[in-house]
Design a protein that fits this description.
Shape: elongated
Number of helices: 6
Number of strands: 13
Oligomer: single chain
Structural class: alpha+beta
Strand order of the largest sheet: 2-1-4-3-5
Order of helices and strands: EEEEEHEEHEHHHHEEEEE
Helix content: 10-25%
Strand content: 25-35%
Mean pLDDT: 90
Distance between the termini: 53 Å
Amino acid sequence: MTEVVGVRFKDTGKTYYFDPGKLDIHKNDVVIVETARGTENGTAVYGNKAVRDEEIVSPLKPVQRIATKEDLARIEKNRKSEKEAYSICQKKIEEHKLDMNLTEVEYTFDGSKIIFYFTSDGRVDFRELVKDLASTFHTRIELRQIGVRDEAKMLGGLGVCGRPFCCSTFLNDFHSVSIKMVKDQGLSLSPTKISGCCGRLMCCLKYEQNSYEYLNKITPRVGTVVDCRDGRGVVVDAAVLTGKLKVQLNSSPEGAPPITVNRGEVRIVKK
């Protein structure tokens, strides 16, 4: 077992392990750590705790310190500088006539690098833009192209359900969502009904997929020949969630309505 502290750099980003050393860190403490991108500030998701060695990617980088008043003032200054950098970069993009949409600007804690996140429909030659920004800010510049789902996560907003985006509130990572999930759940294939504000399939389609896969396995499909309490018939409708089946009996007179039974009350004769 190794003592670690979990640190997150974004409100809904991934949690990374760091070595707390002799520091007694508590949840929501702002800490200063060394990362591959340089010195950065993050928030402790939880305090010191022991985890199994196999869960750790060695070597663990140490937490330098719990943020001081000076550190917090610097973080606040960086947030203001990010807004200024955003406006400047927007103007530079217009001057260079580049087909790109600026999403967010991020300063590293020590100001050694500024990262500009943007979206674009294709590849963008931004070499001249980087030179222009470097001569303006006199520091390292990185332009990073992101996808539309990442853009929605950064910007936030309200989904069709009326609640804030899942990706910008509690989802730590994006899961693969496919059109097969839409079909398994019996939803409309209309793009406007199954797509999020980002234009991709809604993340929430993943939440109940395991339940639907199980229920679809134990629920006879339409067209299945079954035996039930009133005799043999064919399933003409099936409600996966409630387990209610409508069965048209072979012995029923022409035009008679189907009977309703529970899926546990029938025996499959022919799929």
